[in-house]
From TrEMBL:
SUPFAM superfamilies: NAD(P)-binding Rossmann-fold domains (SSF51735). It comes from the Bacteria. This is Ornithine cyclodeaminase. Pfam families: OCD_Mu_crystall. GO terms for cellular component: cytoplasm. It comes from Acetivibrio saccincola. PANTHER family: KETIMINE REDUCTASE MU-CRYSTALLIN.
């Protein structure tokens, strides 16, 4: 570090070929980042969000953070356009990540941010499940059959291998069929049940419930959630207020970040129906042992994450090292020539 060097450009293909899809490894990296944050080893500025449509929540987020021990500063530039799958048949989330070293401030990599976002989001939820889902959980109900729904199944199965049944409900039968096809190709010990767009069927009786949709509407109803369930809220506004009010404990990845966003809990806070005292813990407090996990099999636990830039930066830095160690990526010399030479005749 500390000298002019080529910037390594890493595509999705590069990251996949560098074995960056190992969920167990991702979970370990995320846990370390949470511990480092608790120990004051991370700079975590506020996220900047530019919202272009309040109704649909079309937005682009700028998410910076610095890993002080690693001397790495990064930013994720991520777009969230919920209508993309319907309007353009493309994912609703896309992004890029830039990392720089902080010895001389030089950039070291420009990489795809979609894989990092996809895996980090699911890993955060499954770490919540590791502490709060019943150890013998057998049934998971997933509302939303898109990329996050699929990755959440992979993540949850990693921490709760006891899962035997996955019920999936989406807004179309076609997306449920695609979910079933993709997941059956990954898990041969898991029964996939398509709920034919019946959201209640997916939620009722499930030990783990995941809502991973792009809809800004209270889809999940409190009456559908049974005792002992662990609920992972992934999107913006996906459940009615009564779901959170029914919970025995509410946990966030970071409550201070969550309460200023557009999630269900954020809306409740702004409406005066939820206070700071109603939040049991942030996830890093569980990982370092400051707070306890599930107390009994009857507790209903509500978990909400909003996304933490320092986790993205930590994960992307590990991806960068994995990729460069196996020779992946394209080296580009952005600053190799003196601009003054261009003025010479």
């Amino acid at each position: 570090m500390g000298k002019n060097r080529p910037v390594i450009v890493l595509t999705q293909k590069d990251l996949m070929e560098a074995n960056c899809l190992d969920m167990s490894n991702v979970i370990s990296v995320v846990k370390k980042a949470l511990i480092d944050f608790q120990e004051g080893k991370i700079l975590f500025p506020d996220k900047i969000s530019q919202i272009f449509n309040e109704e649909t929540q079309d937005r682009i987020n700028c998410m910076p953070a610095t890993l002080l021990e690693e001397k790495i500063c990064g930013v994720k530039w991520v777009s969230v356009f919920p209508r993309n799958p319907v309007l353009y048949n493309i994912p609703n989330v896309s992004g890029t990540i830039i990392l720089s070293e902080i010895v001389s401030g030089q950039p070291i990599t420009f990489m795809d941010g979609s894989i990092c976002t996809l895996m980090r989001t699911a890993a955060i939820s499954c770490i919540g499940a590791e502490y709060f889902a019943k150890e013998n959980s057998e049934t998971i109900g997933i509302i939303g059959a898109g990329e996050q729904g699929r990755m959440h199944l992979i993540a949850m199965k990693t921490v709760r291998p006891s899962l035997k049944v996955c019920k999936v409900a989406s807004n179309t039968i076609e997306s449920e069929k695609q979910f079933e096809k993709d997941m059956k190709g990954i898990f041969d010990d898991l029964e996939i049940i398509r709920c034919n767009t019946n959201l209640m069927e997916a939620a009722e009786g499930s030990d783990i419930i995941v809502t991973a949709t792009s809809t800004q509407a209270p889809l999940l109803k409190a009456d559908w959630v049974g005792k002992g369930a662990f609920y992972a809220h992934v999107g913006g506004w996906e459940d009615e207020f009564a779901v959170a009010k029914k919970a025995d404990r509410i946990i966030c990845d970071d409550w201070e970040a969550v309460k200023h966003r557009t999630q269900t809990l954020s809306r409740m806070y702004k409406a005066g129906e939820l206070s700071d005292d109603d939040i049991y813990a942030d996830l890093h407090e569980l990982v370092v042992g400051k707070k306890s996990g599930r107390l009994n099999d009857d507790e209903f636990i509500y978990f909400n994450s909003v996304g933490l830039s320092y986790v993205d930066v930590a994960l992307s830095y590990v991806f960068y090292k994995q990729a460069t160690e196996c020779g992946k990526g394209t080296a580009i010399d952005f600053q190799g020539l003196s601009i003054w030479d261009a003025f010479k005749k």
